[in-house]
Amino acid sequence: MAPITEMKIVVGEGYAWILLEAIVITIHMWITGMMMGAIRKRVFNKDFYQKKFPQYKQLGKVMRPDGGYPDDGQGRLADKLDDEDWFALNNYRRAHMNYLEGGFAVLIPLLISGLSYTRWTFFSGIAYIIGRELYSQGYRRT
C-alpha cells in the first residue's frame, strides 16, 4: 500500500477576510429571502383567504393562510391579488431569485481568486455586496 502524503494548501494572511465576506454575502442572500417571506405573509393573510376563498375552512390543511405556499407569485392565489400586492410580491420575489441565480456564481470565484489576489478580491466583494443591496432596494421599489 502506498504511503499517504500530506498536501498543504497555503493561503494568504488576509484570506480570513475573504471567508468573512463570503459569509456576509450568504447571510445577505438569506435576509433578502426573509424579506420575500415577510411580503408573502402580508399579502396572503387570513383576510385575503376569507375574501377570495370563503370555502377555505372546509378545505382543511389543503388551503391555510400560511403565506400563500406553494404559489410563487404566478399561480392561482396570486391571480386573486390586487395589482399593487401582486406587483410588490413579484418584485420582492424577483430581487431574491436574481440574488440566488447569481450569488453562487460570485461566491466560487471570490473564494478561488481570494487565494492569490486577496486585496483585489476583498474590494470586489465589498463592491458586490453594496451593488447587490442597491439593486435589491431599487427592484423592490419599482
Query: How would you describe the shape?
Result: elongated
Strand content: under 5%
Percent helix range = 55-70%
Tell me the total number of β-strands. 0
Major beta sheet, specifics? none
- Please trace the helix and strand order, writing H or E for each element: HHHHH
Mean pLDDT, as a whole number? 86
Q: Give the number of helices.
A: 5
| Oligomeric status | single chain
End-to-end gap: 65 Å
CA radius of gyration is 22 Å
- Judged by helices, strands and strand pairing, the structural class is mainly alpha
List keywords for this structure.
mainly alpha, elongated, 142 residues, single chain
Description:
The longest helix has 31 residues, at 83-113. The protein has 142 residues and is mainly α. It has one domain. Helix content is 67%, strand content 0%. The protein starts with 14 loop residues before the first helix and ends with a helix. The radius of gyration is 22 Å and the shape is elongated.
Briefly say what this structure is:
The protein is mainly alpha-helical and 142 residues long. The protein has helices spanning 15-43, 46-52, 76-79, 83-113, 118-141. It has one domain (15-141).
